[in-house]
């Protein structure tokens, strides 16, 4: 059985679409079209992820996917999954290249600052604020560095490094 840690959040069942049990799923992605041909998804039910097979799906509006599940053929079945979250295994994420990355894939990467050299290891990414932040540990202190294109100069997946050009004084701020 897959755990949520091995999966990524794809979207949420937001409404019923027909009396035959079809539902509308709001996808949480910039590229909804790549999820139109899925054969199955995992639906979060209680503490477990349950696989559901897709009979057919159709992109409605930009991020709404109309899905007819093999297992659901009436309104009661659709009601049972209303509001449920959909997940897919991490292995199904499209590969990213260049300076684009998934937050989960850079945990453990080293941060290399242009001026200061290695400035710690990424422990996670805090995306609860308006600006996502790398959370790194450096010399026993926690460093918060904005995740944005101006600061990230390159991502080296082979060496597991993210090279950054931080604003002057930012790192010193944490070390005092």
TrEMBL record:
* One GO cellular component term: ribosome
Asked whether the UniProt record includes rRNA processing among its keywords, one would answer yes
Describe the family membership recorded for this protein in Swiss-Prot or TrEMBL: Belongs to the RimM family.
Q: Anything noted about its domains?
A: The PRC barrel domain binds ribosomal protein uS19.
Q: How does it assemble?
A: Binds ribosomal protein uS19.
Q: What does this protein do?
A: An accessory protein needed during the final step in the assembly of 30S ribosomal subunit, possibly for assembly of the head region. Essential for efficient processing of 16S rRNA. May be needed both before and after RbfA during the maturation of 16S rRNA. It has affinity for free ribosomal 30S subunits but not for 70S ribosomes.
Q: What NCBIfam families does its record include? A: 16S_RimM
Q: What is this protein called?
A: Ribosome maturation factor RimM
